[in-house]
Write a structure and sequence with these properties.
The protein has two helices and nine strands. It is an alpha+beta fold. The strands form three sheets. Strands 4-5-6-8-7 form a five-stranded antiparallel sheet, with helices on one face.
Amino acid sequence: MPGAGERAFFYCTPGLFFAAFWGPVVSYNCSRMPAGASASANVEFGKQWQGQTVDGRYPLYQHLGGSDKSAVFLTRLPADVRTRAAIKLVRAAGREAETLLSNWKRAAQLSHPHLLRVFDGGRCWLSGQEMLFVVVECADENLAQVLPQRALS
């Protein structure tokens, strides 16, 4: 059972990037990543979008990492600019896109003090490319930072 100030979010499908454990809030890119690898290792996809705005509401601040078909940025919620959030942009089309949007919509309905919240999701255009986006509560740590220091239990 998590203690005070600890949360868990375990929802890992290709395209949704949060998986956590009973412990401090962490994030992890779980899209086809080998164990022990970092989500941001040598991945440049999407970095050029830093400074742009998604859906007219979510400014893309710091590039946090990604994969060959996704990018994660720090953003702020339009209703409360003091609330930090993470936004993931994903290249997806057809059935894969619909599945991701459906999964994100279901995840947004979950509410528990130990879950990271999913705030929003949808479609957007960046640099002439149709992208999907999901906005989630910003994690305190990245799992890649936690694993070298301690084992998950």
